[in-house]
Amino acid sequence: MPATTQEKFADLFADPYAGRWLTILCQRGKAHATVDAYGRAVRDYISFCRSKELDYLEVRKDHIGAYIQHMYIQQVRRVSTRRGLSNATMQQRLVAIHKFYVFLAEEQLLTNNPVERGKQKSGRRYRQGEGSSRGLIPRYKKLPWIPSEEQWLAILIAAKAEPLRNRLMFSMAYDGALRREELCSLSFDDIDSAYKQITIQAENTKSRCERVVHYSEETSKLYAKYQRERTKLSGARGRLLLSESRRNHAQPLSIWSWSKTVQALAKRAGVPQFTTHTFRHLRLTDMARSGIELHLIALYAGHKSLETTMLYIHRSGREISEKLTDCMNSIHQWREQLN
């Protein structure tokens, strides 16, 4: 188990069951980002239980309802302050808590899981007796946020002042539509400089599927420069991106360090919404705008479902734009014939 996980969730490891659950997640090879998200979710839930003087082994469905209400209050705060919980975070927390209770049930510490998923009947299919269902809270599907041209230019200007390693990461994250864990996990053996290709290893991906992405000529130049600079930190092969800080000198760069770097850059650029994942959103949207076929975008992104890829098609407005153009051309031709 990574030492950073134990350090970050020291309070959960002090709990006899939560700590063991996180340990098992790590042993089963769950992605670091998943363990981190689940840990934060269960920490918040246990904190809520303690504030209400509840034993999480004895909670009932009405207590889960109170926790959902607690999250809704935080979501309302998000609307006014841009801080708090998004709908996706609320969904993720319920998934994590449900899985935690599955573990507790397997340990024979309780008989019923209080966090039932997909038990609320609704809609036409339910009336017809087909048994459709929905989760404990509504699920909203929003289009990925991408910066405007002005915001993207501000980010690019701010990035010019970054050290070489950060500029290389910036370029690779965009070119390859890389998630932060995929980027920080890259090794020298993953880079094929002759063909300007990056192999994303299956164990570092969300879908657990290996894929190959490409990078630009400008990124290639940055990579060549960084190789020379990196030898000053360490001559050993292995992880490509190393920390330059005094505390973790020449150690593999963590996803949290990269997140802090992008967060600081976004703040300087005046675009606080920009995150490590925005590079991926923007790249896939740009691919959709360029007219690249849906299945090729899905392959490049490593999506298991085309439904996920369709979000970027909608975000780009490509389909609607094409249909509107065809429609308007037909209308103009029809009007010309009338004249």
Fill in the keyword field for this structure.
single chain; DNA polymerase, domain 1; globular; two-stranded antiparallel sheet; 339 residues; mainly alpha; 3-stranded antiparallel sheet; hpI Integrase, Chain A; 58% helix
Assembly form of the protein: single chain
> What is the residue-mean pLDDT, rounded to a whole number?
84
What is the C-level CATH assignment of the largest domain? Answer: Mainly Alpha
What's the CATH H-level superfamily name of the largest domain?
Answer: Intergrase catalytic core
Description:
With 339 residues, the chain is mainly alpha-helical. The protein has two domains: 3-117, Tyrosine recombinase, N-terminal domain (DNA polymerase, domain 1), CATH 1.10.150.130; 149-276, Orthogonal Bundle (hpI Integrase, Chain A). It has 16 helices and five strands. The strands form two sheets. The chain has a three-stranded antiparallel sheet with strand order 3-4-5. Strands 1-2 form a two-stranded antiparallel sheet. It is globular and about 60 Å long. The N and C termini lie far apart (76 Å).
Brief account:
The chain has 339 residues and is mainly α. It has 16 helices and five strands. The strands form two sheets. A three-stranded antiparallel sheet has the order 3-4-5. A two-stranded antiparallel sheet has the order 1-2.
